[in-house]
Amino acid sequence: MFKKINAGLATISNDTTTLISEGTELTGDIAFSGTLEILGTVVGNVLSEQKDARVRILGGGVVKGDIKSAIIEVNGAVEGNIYALDHLVLEASCKVNGNVHYTNMEMRPGAQLIGSCICQQVTAPKEIAPQAAKEDAKIKDIRSNSQQTLDKQWP
Description:
globular; 1 helix; 19% helix; 2 domains
């Protein structure tokens, strides 16, 4: 028996594991916290902004939409883009049709990916610029001190 659920926007808010079981088709976007395991089918986007959120698409599980989470493990099928904010694992039996955005990625032999792999920066560029400016100022101070020393030595 196949259960169809039209959720619109389902919000799953807890720090435990939520399972979309085999034989269930959920239509609509999912916003969640904790761990979300998918054995059934999700037609919609799966999203979590929490730093320790985890999505696991288990063998036989299907997501037709984008996925955004800190940790993503794919052993089933995904038709959409993946945005792994921390870690992505593409297991041997997975099939992904979409672009993959990752910081750290493991891809097992046999995993199928039709799309691009895009590595994300760990540190945002705006955080790098101020530090670089500080280092430039230090280098200028060292250079000017060295020049003053050389000027004293060579009249």
